[in-house]
Amino acid sequence: MKVMQLLPELNSGGVERGTLEIARALIAGGHESLVVSNGGRMVTQLEAEGSTHLTLPVHKKALSSLWQIRPLRKLILQHRPDIVHVRSRVPAWLTHFALKGIPAHQRPHLITTVHGFYSINRYSQIMTQAEKVIAVSDSVVKYITDNYKNCPPEDIVRIYRGIDPNAFPHGYQPSAQWQNQTFKDFPELENKFLICLPGRITRLKGHETLIALVQQLQQHYPQLHAVVVGGADPKKAAYLKEMQDSIQAKGLSEKITFAGHRSDIREWLAFSDVVLSLSNQAETFGRTALEALSVGTPVIGWNRGGVAEILSHVYPQGLIAVDDQSALLSAVKKHIDAPKQVEPVNMFSLKDMCDQTLDLYQQLLN
């Protein structure tokens, strides 16, 4: 098979990671893998792993992007992929118009993956116009069937995102060296019950909820400490300051640590006693929650979106009613009073995701 994947850029993020994972699986299976994007820092890795990267500015939400229709059509005719797999809205529109100019019998098969709960409009509907539409969770299947009646249910294929269990092994513990360095950088974390809120600093991730939680728990549980693992975009500096001021005003500066942007997220997830998932909006999947559970750290999260699906399969006792602050409080108390065990995770694997995607490609060709 020859498969061409399209996405805006290759810098960082779940869509990008998924693209590289499928590219790697195609090469491992003896197939050909092409990726079209505006480039980015992950291109080097993509090419080192055997794929061909074709640079085309398919990333701008602007009318000027329409100039890319003809160059994209040329790439498709030149490389003749069996399948074109589109993962984002601008590339989906460009592909739609590029394929129109190719005689029907010469067109590749078209697949899309719906990675997000996009705003509901004609612009987003393009993601549901393909021979097969991959949804990354049941929540996304529901989003498509509720909002896009043009998409026949039998064309929607649910393929969960997956992680490599070898990268997040059950019972994993950070090295003594890592722990020593961490206690040196953050001495306030030593001998504490750590609750971790991973994710970028944005209003969506539930930091206010965390602050309120720590405020309620601190008197009864002096050993409790919260750590926020994730950086703030320069554009979010004002929000970060607002949060830090609020923490100071509440006298919680000694209780909440901001670790900043980290590349050692696995270590932080394994090192924490509990990981929280408190996003104000449903997430389509919830990879970080899955990574925490995979290493054996309990996750407590709102019962919505992809995180709820993962918890209901892997750690149902971590599920709490959306925005129910008292349920959150009592769930965290229970975990402090009696540490809980997480069973090894035996679903949501990267191998399953790749196998199911390649099977779908094969089905279309047959």
Q: What tags apply to this protein structure?
A:
single chain; 366 residues; alpha/beta; Rossmann fold; 2 domains; seven-stranded parallel sheet; six-stranded parallel sheet; 14 helices; 13 strands
Alpha-beta content class = alpha/beta
User: Strand order across the biggest sheet?
Assistant: 3-2-1-4-5-6-7
Strand content: 15-25%
Radius of gyration: 22 Å
The count of domains is: 2
Q: Spell out the helices and strands N to C.
A: EHEHEHEHEHEHEHEHEHEHEHEHEHH
Number of strand segments: 13
- State the name of the first-level CATH class of the largest domain: Alpha Beta
Helix proportion range:
40-55%
Measured distance between first and last alpha carbons: 11 Å
CATH superfamily placement of the largest domain: Glycogen Phosphorylase B
Low-confidence stretches: none
Most strands sheet: 7 strands, parallel
What does the overall shape look like?
elongated
What CATH architecture of the largest domain do you see? 3-Layer(aba) Sandwich
Structure overview:
InterPro entries: Glyco_trans_1 (IPR001296), Glyco_trans_4-like_N (IPR028098). GO terms for molecular function: glycosyltransferase activity. This is Glycosyl transferase. It comes from Acinetobacter pragensis. The chain has 366 residues and is α/β, with parallel strands linked by helices. It has two domains: 2-162 and 349-365, Glycogen Phosphorylase B (Rossmann fold), CATH 3.40.50.2000; 176-337, Glycogen Phosphorylase B (Rossmann fold, 3-Layer(aba) Sandwich), CATH 3.40.50. The chain is 40% helix and 16% strand. The protein has helices at residues 14-28, 43-48, 69-79, 89-100, 122-125, 138-147, 176-185, 207-217, 237-249, 265-271, 287-295, 305-314, 325-337, 350-365, and strands at residues 2-6, 32-37, 52-55, 83-86, 109-114, 132-135, 156-158, 193-198, 224-229, 256-260, 274-277, 299-302, 319-320. The strands form two sheets. A seven-stranded parallel sheet has the order 3-2-1-4-5-6-7, with helices on both faces. Strands 10-9-8-11-12-13 form a six-stranded parallel sheet, with helices on both faces. Helix 8 packs across helix 13 (325-337) and helix 11 (287-295) packs parallel to helix 12. The protein is elongated. The model has no long low-confidence stretch (mean pLDDT 95).
